[in-house]
Amino acid sequence: MGKIIIIAGPTASGKSEAALRLAKERPSVIINADSMQIYREIPILSAQPGNAERNAVPHKLYGFISAKEEFSAGRWLGLTKHEIDRALKEKITPVVVGGTGMYLKSLVEGIAAIPDISPEVRDKVRNQFAETGKEKFHEYLKKIDRAAAEKIRPSDKQRMIRAAEVFLSTGKSILYWRENTKPHYPKEYFSISLMLPDRAELYRRCDARFLQMLENGALDEVKNLRELKLPQNSPALKALGVKELSNYLDGKISRDEAIKNAQQSTRNYAKRQYTWFKSLS
User: Fold this and answer.
1) Can you give the pTM of this predicted structure?
2) In terms of domains, do 103 and 236 share one?
3) Does one domain contain both 72 and 189?
4) Distance, CA of 91 to CA of 215 (rounded, Å)
5) What CATH number did the domain enclosing 216 receive?
């Protein structure tokens, strides 16, 4: 078995339980690889481990930042490497658990060491996109970074903006940075387990979990999250159930409709995750 254990899979697949069982068998630390479980305001909606689990085994990178803060896969990777290196130095097993593919991919394969983009460049690129639209912005990208533009569809707003930001900030194509990416750990360091239960059982768990979240106070979490007045594009607002429960609080739908819609959204998300992880097996 590798020195670094990864337990991955879709939401409600039993990852956290499996990680806890494994971590109890040997000196271990459990490290979060879920992009929603980083936020302190939504421990229930993001299904973060409770006090009993955290008291049984050390847990890292759970509920440690505010939804008001900006976060990235690069920052997660830096924090995770710090926790892994400390665990290995102390001769305990790092168990990385989660379902955010971008995080896990960056850990195993590395992430491009692109310098930080200045606010001035970021604003300039976004303003230009807003003024020109997708098609014209794609033509602009061709002029400054043809190689990247040829790999990005005009409909892919985020990747176009990112490519332009990187080129204007560094003078080099985003492809250059990606091609020079090196993983921090050798592949043989990793032992990866995918949790892929029967789909029908997975969907049943998704439905049951949301009902349990409501009983545990998910609606109050949404109320508190709304009081933060976060921007509409805030990642925390994309947590499963937030949109549906917000619609209920606004009187747009009934409580039963909110539950039904949130359960459907959760199953849809689990299905996409399942397909992505299945392609790796």
Assistant:
1) 0.84
2) no
3) yes
4) 40
5) 1.10.287.890
